Model the fold of this input.
Amino acid sequence: MIPEFHRIRRLPPYVFEEVNRLKAQLRACGKDIIDFGMGNPDMPTPAHIVEKLIETARDPKSGRYSASKGIPGLRRAMAGYYGRRFGVKLDPDTEVVATLGSKEGFANLAQALTAPGDVIICPNPAYPIHAYGFIMAGGVIRHVPALSPEEYLAGVSRAVRHSAPPPSVLILSYPSNPTAQWVDLDFYRDAIALARRHDLLVLSDIAYSEIYFDDNPPPSVLQVEGAREIAVEVNSLSKTYAMAGWRVGMVVGNARMCAALARVKSYLDYGAFTPIQVAAAAALNGPQECVDQIRSIYKSRRDVLVSAMARAGWPIPTPPASMFAWAPLPEAHRQGGSMLFAKRLIEEAGVAVAPGVGFGEYGEGFVRIGLVENEHRIRQAARNVKRFLEGSSVASDVGEAVDAA
Done:
């Protein structure tokens, strides 16, 4: 008998698969499902980006191998973006690596930086690749509760004291997927100071840095003096320009870590299709009104979601950033947990959400709602949720009456 493969054995069953399977079954039976479960942008990629892709793809040479760390023009565009947006000057040759989305960048960084048994400090709840990229690389995850940025940072020193061997990497991710929280520059200053005290490298994921809803855009950890000596940042064009399927991201910052990532990638891929990279450069260098429009759509959906669900009897905190709402379970459903609630919601209300436990044990008691349906569908979902909650309340009252009798 062939034994289970080592790396696969270290990965738990995919928590979201159960909800995805239910969703597929219900749709196959003709049921309309309003799907907030996946962070998959539904808006079209801006036209000028698509046109640049088409123009470049017509070049007979465009089908050749590209460059695994990104073509020079794209790396210059990424460095230019950091200069304009954050006031951070990067060397595009040594401090910028273009990646096949932020997820690939993060996973291959883990491969580049991790020896078997290395301890990694990771927020919990968190986007799954933050932990499992390192687990697949042979690392050991030290989960730190992160239901608020302050809770996370306070827990890092405790984790360092109680870890053997000492941790080597600290993961940051703000605006957060799934909690939608973001931080100011003082948080990053404290995080870098903490990392220096404990000899930690810092990996910061800011894939949602352009999806924010007030006048203060989220900062970059690289704005902190000296951060580039120990930190890299993972970023993405996926949400900013509605380019999720294009798979264009970046890792920027510390030159030594960027070089390690580039070396790993040189063995694994030849980079994205060159016309995609040229179009990505056009996105970064071109007009940015499309980013404002995308941000405005998410803000409008957020406002409709919060107000409509409140009327339905499900109060949801207003997310300050990202394309998600992090919603506590309705009181009547808290005892059953997030997985049961998500399954019942899709079966009885036709509404799909992501169970919080899928983002780590400290995500239990919450679900993540993606702002990936239009306002009409959001209001329709709220009506379905209202009927579902009212039915649950009636069932609960009947059950209590039977128990009392």
The CA atoms of residues 325 and 369 lie 5 Å apart. Confidence is low (pLDDT under 50) at residues 397-402. The chain has two domains: 6-44+290-391, 47-285.
